[in-house]
Amino acid sequence: MNTYKVTTNRLLSATLLSALISISVLSAASLKAADATTASSTDKTVRLEEVVVIEARTSAETMAPFESSLDAVQPQSVINLQTIQNNLPPTSDYALIANLAPSMAMGNTNGPGLNESKVSLRGLSDGTYNVTFDGIPFGDGNDYTHHTTSYFPAKLVGQQTIDRGPGTAATIGMATFGGTIAMTSKDPATHASVIPTLSYGSWNTSLENLEVNSGILANGSSLWAGYQYMSSDGYHTFGTLMRNTYAVKYLVPVGKNAKITVYGTYNNIKFNNPNQTTFTLSQIATLGRNFGQVNYLDTAGNDYQRNHQEKHADLEYISYDSVLPAGWEIHDKIYTFNYNNMSHESPNVNSGPSKKDFGGQVKVNVVRAYGTYFQVSHEDNNGIFKSGFWVDYQHGPRYNYYYDYNNAAAGPVVQNDFIDLNHTGSNNGYAYNMHFWTNTFDPYIDYAWNVTSKLTLDVGLKYMSVSRRAWGPANQITAPYNVYFTQSRVYSKALPLTDLNYKITNEWSAYAQFAKGMLTPALAQFQIPNPQLSQVQIQTTTNYQVGTVYKTKRFNADVDAYWINYNNFPFTQQNPAGTSTSDVLYYFSSGAQYYGVEAEGTYYLAKGLSVFANGSINKAVFMDSKTAIPSVNHSTGLFGFTYDYAGFNTSLIAKYIGPYTVYTSLPTNPSLPLPATNLTAIQGGYTLFDYSLTYGTKLPAGYFIKSIKARMQITNLFNRDVKLLKAPNATVANQAYTPLVPRGVFFTVTGEF
């Protein structure tokens, strides 16, 4: 089959369909607006953000859905509020936002923002890069992974930047190693307003969101507050969820040159978690591609799900920012965050989707963190000096015990009386039971020297020291068990970084970067009992990157190339002698290499119409053997258009996720060739189209409603049936696949009072 021809036909069909939809709705109003609008009154063109404001969008700089900066020192994609609010469903999470950038890849299995999404960055999995909110790195306390439904839904995000690299010495986080997905919060508006949003769509998905702005108060302060409730049945059977999110931000000036910012957010989510999302073709044919779990009734006829989770998460900070005389500045942020997860999961581990065995597990994973990030800086004609430190303390309990669901009285409530003490390989019913403590200290110094008016040389050094300790009656490794074990280790590394930025012209710059990254081993890794692996080493990267950025009103583009040496590459294998699926073996290869090229650009045509595209070629191989690292997409791409004029916004976005390689297994040392018995398969690439249509208008003065905006969004426009291969098998019907969601339609109305 000619893939290029099929893709081209789909693009032409999508373009025609979206054009017909748009023209039918827009033509009369647009022509009328065009007749009434002259070149001297273009400032009356409305910009469709969370509310309608007066701002022209007449250039690539204002319409680009993603862009870099002329001052960039590493590859980056900045995604603005305009794109987040108008081109993505309101239920979206930060993973869906990040998926717009090159080298980012994810699959949606329950609906947009309706399941915990895992997005990869250049093939690096979640947990090997930072995710930050207003500069605060957050995540699990055990392995630095993230849970997209538990923090910061898209409507809390004002802007998102994807940095594909370790950054500068001042970049903080447990995993500067791979890069950073950086979210920033919305600032309070300068005028008072109340902004309700109502949304409804596929799979009985509803969202109610309320935002309040105080405007500028008498003391110069301002406040923004938001509340959101979201519920959905989900695409998977019995994959329902309910979530409440609260947030508040308060800014107050202190004198003429300082301000204090107070921010807080709390998120509570309850959802049924279809633990098994990967099925063989024969199971899909029998159960359906949207099978999640079945509805269980206890002996009294009460209806509840065996697989369900409840999570509470919060993040709060107080920051102080001050501009001092002679070019000096002080910035300090004190924060805390919490992630509290109680999960009923993994029922029927040994019986698959037949759902006959009611054995399961209860897992509790909690982390509470406290930290501060302090920086002093000085800027003059010679350059910018920065120095400071990051201190972070984390603690939490972690336990997982086997639960006897065969006892109907156990019910959905955790009761220790129903721990399955007879579970093979358990320690009094526990898979593991422990507390952990992590202390991080990260001082740094950085200087960006203006060598000439066009050339800037940045040199920095950070010293990262992480102390990890675990204690408890049952270790996380299945065997051997230690009675009240205790383990502690300190991981530290000096990380030098240097980069160059050269302004070729006022519209064109180039950069080069050399940087070291570090990742502290996860708790499960540093508890490895194997004698030969008792001294687990930190994972490090050496990054070499070059790129160029070009920006004019008509055309924005950036291109980069990267090479990453990854040392002490960890991977896991199922223990062939184990007694449960949670029994895995941890190995470390000598290393891996990641390399590729990336590009993105936006071209403004005329009268509110722009086209955009990005793409990447990504390679990842184990060192020595040059075997492709499994599940790393070989390429990504995105293309589409946006039309924004006289209050209307319509867009078509097509995301291409390239092929990847999967194996039945890897050798204990993947730096050696694959065994002859190994099966290798390639999952082909696929493209999904999303369409959005929005209209917003400001109402005449004196109306109770100041402005109103309505939008429709269609995900997977052509309803493609995509099943991702996860494990090859000699019998095709027994190969394991994960189905992605079909077409979804969402309608949203937002007003401003």
β content, as a range? over 45%
Please state the structural category: mainly beta
Number of helices: 6
- Tell me the CATH architecture: Beta Barrel
What is the number of strand segments?
38
Would you give an account of this structure?
The protein is mainly beta and 753 residues long. It has one domain: TonB-dependent receptor, beta-barrel domain (Maltoporin, Chain A). The protein has 6 helices and 38 strands. The strands form 7 sheets. It has a 22-stranded antiparallel barrel. It is globular. The termini are far apart.
Topology:
Blueprint: H1 3-36, E1 46-48, E2 52-54, H2 60-63, E3 76-79, H3 81-87, H4 94-98, E4 104-105, E5 120-121, E6 130-133, E7 136-137, E8 157-163, E9 180-185, E10 192-201, E11 205-214, E12 222-232, E13 241-254, E14 258-272, E15 279-280, H5 281-287, E16 296-297, E17 303-304, E18 308-323, E19 328-345, E20 359-380, E21 383-404, E22 430-450, E23 455-474, E24 485-505, E25 508-519, H6 523-526, E26 539-551, E27 555-574, E28 584-606, E29 609-622, E30 635-645, E31 648-657, E32 660-663, E33 680-683, E34 686-698, E35 707-715, E36 723-727, E37 736-739, E38 744-752
Parallel strand pairs: 6-9
Antiparallel strand pairs: 1-2, 3-8, 4-5, 6-7, 8-9, 10-11, 10-38, 11-12, 12-13, 13-14, 14-18, 15-37, 16-17, 18-19, 19-20, 20-21, 21-22, 22-23, 23-24, 24-25, 25-26, 26-27, 27-28, 28-29, 29-30, 30-31, 31-34, 32-33, 34-35, 35-38, 36-37
